[in-house]
């Protein structure tokens, strides 16, 4: 039962879904960055983010699976992760570039720039250890909204508590599935927090 729950949590909070979750949360928050966006453009942007940061990377990974470049979508070995992470970085940067053309997405652009940077750093760290990308993503989400709250004096207390709970559940799932050890899980979360928090505080 716990293993099935762990698998479900890992799917629901898959790293490729985090940009879409972040955009969905952001366009439903009551701050002036969102209020200046035309209503329709918010959801067009969300669809762009979902397509370029989730659908296209997943299709690419299915192609890699089909041709035998990776053995499974879990990519259990460090060697299997190299090519997918490289192309995820390209897709994430593409998301950033597309939204950069619009005048109202500066805040989310910082998030996507940070997400791209985190994928690149994770790719480099991958040569040393199999850091938990799930936890890097959770740390990034937590760090981004914490940095935004501090920099722009926004009250995201409940959201930040929610992100902590989700990060805890995700950590439980990755450890339960024996996908990572504790250092890889907590280190991944710390990496995500530091990079995103730094971007939102200093850019």
Strand count:
0
DSSP helix count? 9
**Rg:** 16 Å
Give a short account of the largest sheet: none
**How does the helix and strand content classify structurally?**
mainly alpha
Global outline? globular
Order of helices and strands: HHHHHHHHH
What amount of the residues lies in strands?
under 5%
Question: How many domains, in number, for the residues?
Answer: 1
* Helix fraction by DSSP (H/I, runs of at least 4): over 70%
Mean pLDDT: 90
Low-confidence stretches: none
> N-to-C terminal Cα separation, in Å?
44 Å
Summarize the topology:
Blueprint: H1 2-12, H2 18-26, H3 32-35, H4 39-66, H5 78-100, H6 106-125, H7 133-151, H8 157-176, H9 182-202
Helix pairs in contact: 1-8, 2-4, 2-6, 4-5, 5-6, 6-7, 6-9, 7-8, 7-9, 8-9
Give keywords.
203 residues; mainly alpha; 0% strand; globular
